[in-house]
Each structure stands twice: as C-alpha cells, then as structure tokens.
C-alpha cells in the first residue's frame, strides 16, 4: 500500500511551472475529464488533460463497468443528443498570454461567471481582479476575454450568463499592455 | 407420515413450494422421493448444461413450469462471446416429444430462436406464461407465433432481450377471442408498434395487470390505453416525445386518476419531465418505481416525484439523483427495501454522481433496506462501516466503484475494512459484489464472516491466491463465484476441487490460472465441465511444453451430471 502513499511524489504532471494545487485543480476542473474513446474531436488535448490524474487513466476495459448493453446504449444516446444540442459538453478553448499551451473547459459545467472565473484562476494560477461594470477588471494585470460569434473579442462578464454561454467561441486571458484596450486599469 | 395414503402426503407437499425444500423432502425416504417426483409442478434449473432434458423428464414427469438459465452472469457485460451456448431448442424439442403439459417457461440468458417459439406455441395446449429475460436470437416473428397459437396465454413478459424487430404485426396476431392476458411487457422492442392492434388487445383484456410499453407508444396512445385499463397494477411508459401535447397530458392525468390499483411505474425512456405530473394522483400508492432509463428526468422534477412516493419499496434510479436526492429518498421512503443506483457517466468524472454520503444517508433513513446496487465514483471505509452499523439486514450488497483499484479517497487505504464491516454485520448476506482497492484481507473477512454468502462477484481485487482460498474455504454456502482481473491462479483453483461439486459454477477471467492448471482440475474432477473460452486464434494452446505458463483468458466451470456438452462452438474447449 506504500505505493499509493507515495504516488503523488512520482506523479507525472504537466501543470504549469509553480502549480502545486493539483488536488484543487482536479476538483475544479473535474468537468474536463473525458472518456478516451469518446467524442473528443482533439485527441491530443484530451490526453494532455489525462496526465494530471493518477493512476493513469483507463483504456476502455471490456465489460466494465458492469452495466448491461441496453443501459449503456440509453446513456450514450442521451449524451450524444445533448452534446449536439449544445446543452452539455460545451467545450471552448482557453488560452492565456504567455502560457505554452491551451486548455479546454466545458462551459456547461458552470452556473455563472464567478464559478467560471474561479476555475480559470485555478487552472492558470492567476488572479482576475474585481469586475466593475464600467471599468472592467481592476486589481490584476490579467483580463478574461472571449471571442464571440461575430469574431469580436469581448470582456467576460458584460452580458447575462446564458447569452455568454451561447455566444462564446473561445476564451483568452489577456495580460498586461494588450489588455489595456479593454478598459482594464492596472 | 408413512401411515397416510400417498394422496394425503402429496397434498401436504403441495404447500411446500420452495425448490430447496422440495429437494430436501425428496431425500427423506424412497416413498417420499417417489411422491415428490410425480407431484413437482415447478422445476428450476440454474444451469441448463448441468442436466439434460431427457433426465429432467425422467425425474419429474409431470411438471408444469420450467425455469432455465443459460449463460453465466458475466455474459450480461459482453464477456461471453456470441455463440457460446445456452440454446433452448433441444429443451423445447424434448418437452414437445414427451407428454408433459407445459404451462410456463421462464428463460434467462438463453438463445431462443423463432423456430423454438413456433414449436413451443404449437406443442402445449395449455401454455400460459412465457417469461424471457436477457435472451437473444429471436424476432417479432417468433412473438407472432406465440400470439397466434397460445390460446390461453396469460403472460408475455420480455425483459431486456435483444429482439430483432421486423416491425411486423405480431400484436395483431392475438386472435379476437384472446381475452386472457394478464401480463404484456414488450418494453425492449425497438421498432414501431401497431397502436390500433394494441389498443384493441388491451380493451379486450379485463385481467390485464401488467402492461409495459416500448418507446414507440406515444403520449396520446398511452392516454387511450389507460382509459381501457383502469385495473392496471404495473405500468411501463413508452415515450413522451411531444412536449407540446398538453391535451394528451391532461387526458392521461384524467385516466390515471382512475387507476387506483397502480403500484409500479417504469420506462420513461423519452420523457419530458413536466408530463410526470400526470402521475400525481397515484404517487402515494406506488411501491415500485424504475426510472433507471429516464435520463431526462432529474433535478427538481425527480425530487418532487420522490417526495410524493412515501410507500416506495423498490426504487431504481440513475446517479443524476445525486446525494441530495438520495437524502430526500432517505427521509421520504421509509418502506424502501431495494435500491439500485445506476451510472450516467460510464467513465467517471461527471460531477453529478453520487458519493459515499448518499449511501450513508440511505442506510440511516431506510430501516427496511435489504438489497442495494450502488454505482459510484468514490467510497470510504468510514462510510461503509457506518452503513454496516445502520443496516445489518442486507441480503444483497453490491457496490461498484467505477474506477478499478480505487482506494478510500480520504485515507488512500484499501477498502478491506469497510467491506469487512459489511460482512461482519450482515449475517444474512447472500449476495455480495466488491470493488475498489482491495487486498487479500477483505477475502479473509469474507471467508470468516459471510457464512451464508451464495454469490460473490470480484473484479480487480486481491493480491495472492490466499484471497481466493479464504473465500473457498470459508463460504460454505457459495453457489456462484465470478472473478475477473484478479491475481488468483492454479494454487487456489486446485486446492480443493470437491468444493466445486457443491457450487453451481465458477467463472474466472483475466486471472492467473494456466492451461496446465485447468487440465489438472479437469482430470481430478470428472463431474465438472471445465470450459476454456479462447477467442484468440493465435493461441497455440495444444503445445504441451507451455501449458504451465500459458494463461487462460476465460475459465468457466460447472458441475454437471451429463458430461461434456455437444453444442460447444470451436472457441470453447472443454477439458
């Protein structure tokens, strides 16, 4: 059983340099866990996510979990239907200026802006400051933005949550001077 | 008792219905054996390969009801390849040739063909009841034969079968004179249903108590059906696809109000949650609720429904109910006896799944709980110990932690102590499934305390052969042992071959047993069929030198009085 006690020490992680809080991250980012054999359109990205978890995530094991085919089919059908409706599994790419690679999050996992921002903060180890309707985000050099359906870069938090979820195509956390244009005051 | 004439003894025996008891009676003396033999009405055969139809008829010439089970349990999870066996045809042929007045046939995990169903329907004039569970190999044409030819049919109960739906008119094959139906369950049929024929059938079946529809029966048809069948006790609902159809919803609600005998609800495969309100009037009477296929019903709708079902004894649900939902169950359903919580996310990682907290809440709130099947993503020893304290009455305890080898998520320890507490507290435990990170220790506890255990399912557990030996030596009442992906090998397998004579079967897949070990077992125990299921063509299993090291992928052994079966496919080797 000692193996399991020491597992964290030998754990292979690709967290950003300086990231310690893998456990929290796992809790917050739990929505991002995907089935390997599934509907992920980007295999490399999902395998990146996988490495955080220990032990190494499952290949599909025959006959596991012990659920009858009829049940599996029902659940799979429901998942596929709701994926296509955009109800669940609304994944968008998240980039942060200066970070070596992108992440993906499932917007439908969050009920509102505060949950989303907290998750982003943990994922990228930064602080987003406080949101003000007029000035945008204050107190941090990072500003969360998103690209909407029209291709414009918008400040996260301006529109109602539902509208944001339905129009958001990708998320970018801007940093420093670039962010000034969006009304951020450092 | 020998001073009484045979008829009197036979009359007394009629009150003894359990198979075990009747088997015991027949062992008392020769005359009782003879009387019991001729008066046995219901025969139960747990493994169709343990005996032949001819020997069955020789022993019990006058039975009316036969229950047959074919494939091993793990066949449900695709571990048994197609074509392995379990064919009912030879049984029906033999019964048809004899003069037995078969009235009821119950089959589980067997291969049934249209030819078999046709033969069945033509051979037994008084045939009344057909129950097929997890069977395959037939189509709606076979059902049409049953409908056409069985004049006194009462039960046609199709549970979770794989049926080829030819979209034929099997429902219209019931003759207009057929009015005897009591049970009609075709929920597992995938295709369209002739709604007109169905409505007419239901309308002329005043004894209909159980009606379970497939997804092709929409809301408006359901409303009309309920008007014809207010006496219904069990209802399986089809689809509620049309959310806009509030008129049908109202009609349904009005019809349901009259169904004062309704006690069981199931189905809801395509359910718009708001239509659940049609069942308001009957919730307080419901004793059984199966929402395990209702992926659309969750959240507040589900909670609302459960809060009104105070008399529930049986609840099958998806884990989208969450711990909070289970707390509602715990505080509402004080009569609950059986709970099954199925997973919605088969690969773990969903954030709506239930945890150990839900299980603890249920154990604390439901004093009559005796059977549980619980899929979850995490568990702790502390929770299991609490559950054991709260609920020492478990007869069936099946816990499935979705991730293999997962330890106690708080302490990172194996779950040996938790399961140990369960087997120690639950003296009447007959069925147990274990999961999570487990060492040989848990099997030591099981062997020590689970004295009444009859069925044990092990997956990804244990360290050495000692684990399996603890179980084989300790659980004297073991009947079915099924093991997968666990490090048990020849030493455990061969330790005491006589044990297998007292069991129905043993399944071991992806373990450490070798071909050599299996061959030695077959030699030592000729009363067993030792089957190796080997799907891998490349395996050169014949080479003698390698037997000792050649691992067997799937081993299935069972006691039998008729020796090697003749219908085994090429990938099954019977040693």
From TrEMBL, chain A:
It comes from the Eukaryota. InterPro entries: AUX/IAA_dom, AUX_IAA, PB1-like. Keywords: Auxin signaling pathway, Nucleus, Repressor, Transcription, Transcription regulation. One of its GO terms (biological process) is auxin-activated signaling pathway. It is found in: Nucleus. The keyword Ligase does not apply. Its main location: nucleus. Residues 89-176 form the PB1 domain. The keyword Transcription applies. Aux/IAA proteins are short-lived transcriptional factors that function as repressors of early auxin response genes at low auxin concentrations. This is Auxin-responsive protein. It comes from Eruca vesicaria subsp. sativa (Garden rocket).
From TrEMBL, chain B:
It comes from Eruca vesicaria subsp. sativa (Garden rocket). It is found in: Nucleus. The lineage of its organism: Eukaryota, Viridiplantae, Streptophyta, Embryophyta, Tracheophyta. Transmembrane segments: none annotated. InterPro entries: COI1_F-box, F-box_dom, Leu-rich_rpt_Cys-con_subtyp, LRR_dom_sf, Transp_inhibit. Pathway: Protein modification; protein ubiquitination. This is F-box domain-containing protein. GO terms for cellular component: nucleus. GO terms for biological process: auxin-activated signaling pathway; pollen maturation. Residues 4-45 form the F-box domain. GO terms for molecular function: auxin binding. Keywords: Auxin signaling pathway, Developmental protein, Nucleus, Ubl conjugation pathway.
């Amino acid at each position: 059983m000692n193996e399991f006690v020491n597992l964290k020490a030998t754990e292979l992680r690709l967290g950003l340099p300086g990231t310690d809080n893998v456990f929290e991250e796992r809790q917050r980012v739990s929505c991002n866990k995907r089935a390997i054999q599934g509907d992920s359109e980007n295999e490399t990205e999902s395998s990146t996510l996988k490495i955080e978890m220990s032990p190494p995530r499952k290949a599909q094991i025959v006959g596991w979990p012990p659920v009858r085919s009829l049940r599996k089919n029902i659940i799979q059908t429901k998942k596929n239907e709701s994926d296509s409706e955009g109800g669940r599994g609304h994944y968008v790419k998240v980039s942060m200026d200066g970070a070596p690679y992108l992440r993906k999050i499932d917007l439908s996992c969050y009920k509102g802006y505060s949950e989303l921002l907290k998750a982003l903060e943990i994922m990228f180890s930064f602080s987003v400051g406080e949101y003000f309707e007029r000035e945008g985000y204050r107190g941090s050099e990072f500003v969360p933005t998103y690209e909407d359906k029209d291709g414009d870069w918008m400040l996260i938090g301006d529109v109602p949550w539902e509208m944001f979820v339905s129009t958001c195509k990708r998320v970018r956390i801007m940093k420093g001077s670039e962010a000034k244009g969006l009304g951020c005051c450092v | 008792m020998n001073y009484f004439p045979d008829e009197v003894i036979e009359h007394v025996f009629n009150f003894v219905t359990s198979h075990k008891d009747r088997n015991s009676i027949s062992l008392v003396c020769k005359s009782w054996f003879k009387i019991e033999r001729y008066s046995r009405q219901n025969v139960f055969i747990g493994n169709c390969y343990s005996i032949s139809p001819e020997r069955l008829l020789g022993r019990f010439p006058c039975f009316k009801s036969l229950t047959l089970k074919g494939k091993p349990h793990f066949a449900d999870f695709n571990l048994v390849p197609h074509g392995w066996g379990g064919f009912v045809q030879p049984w029906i042929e033999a019964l048809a040739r004899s003069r037995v007045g078969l009235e009821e046939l119950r089959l589980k995990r067997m291969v049934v063909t249209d030819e078999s169903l046709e033969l069945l329907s033509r051979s037994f004039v008084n045939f009344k009841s057909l129950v097929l569970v997890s069977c395959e190999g037939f189509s709606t044409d076979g059902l049409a034969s049953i409908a056409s030819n069985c004049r006194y049919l009462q039960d046609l109960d199709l549970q979770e079968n794989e049926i080829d739906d030819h979209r034929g008119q099997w429902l219209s094959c019931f003759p207009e004179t057929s009015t005897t139906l009591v049970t009609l369950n075709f929920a597992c049929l995938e295709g369209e249903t002739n709604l007109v024929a169905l409505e007419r059938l239901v309308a002329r079946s005043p004894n209909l108590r159980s009606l379970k529809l497939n997804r092709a029966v929409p809301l408006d048809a359901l409303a009309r059906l309920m008007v014809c069948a207010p006496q219904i006790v069990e209802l399986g609902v089809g689809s509620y696809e049309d959310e806009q159809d509030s008129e049908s919803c109202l009609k349904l609600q009005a019809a349901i109000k009259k169904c004062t005998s309704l006690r069981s609800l199931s189905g809801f495969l395509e359910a718009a949650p708001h239509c659940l309100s049609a069942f308001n009037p009957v919730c307080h009477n419901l004793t059984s609720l199966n929402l395990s296929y209702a992926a659309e019903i969750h959240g507040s709708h589900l909670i609302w429904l459960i809060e009104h079902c105070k008399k529930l004894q049986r609840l099958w649900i998806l884990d989208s109910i969450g711990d909070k939902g289970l707390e509602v169950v715990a505080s509402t359903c004080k009569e609950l006896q059986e709970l099954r919580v199925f997973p919605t996310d088969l690969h773990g990682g969903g954030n709506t799944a239930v945890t150990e907290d839900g299980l603890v809440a249920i154990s604390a709130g439901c004093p009559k709980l005796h059977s549980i099947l619980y899929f979850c993503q995490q568990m702790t020893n502390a929770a299991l110990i609490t559950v054991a304290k709260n609920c020492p009455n478990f007869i069936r305890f099946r816990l499935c932690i979705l991730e293999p080898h997962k330890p106690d998520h708080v302490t990172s320890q194996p779950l040996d102590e938790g399961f140990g507490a369960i087997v120690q507290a639950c003296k009447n435990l007959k069925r147990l499934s274990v999961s999570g990170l487990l060492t040989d220790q848990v099997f030591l506890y099981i062997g020590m305390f689970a004295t009444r255990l009859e069925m044990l399912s092990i997956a990804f557990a244990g360290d050495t052969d000692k684990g399996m030996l603890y179980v084989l030596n300790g659980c004297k009442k073991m009947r079915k042992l099924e093991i997968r992906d666990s490090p048990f090998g020849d030493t455990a397998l061969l330790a005491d071959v006589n044990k297998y004579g007292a069991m129905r079967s043993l399944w071991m897949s992806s373990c450490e047993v070798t071909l050599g070990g299996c061959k030695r077992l077959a030699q030592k125990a000729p009363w067993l069929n030792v089957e190796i299921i080997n799907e891998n063509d490349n395996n050169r299993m014949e080479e003698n030198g390698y037997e000792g090291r050649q691992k067997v992928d799937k081993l299935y052994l069972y006691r039998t009085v008729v020796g090697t079966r003749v219908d085994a496919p090429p990938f099954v080797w019977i040693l």
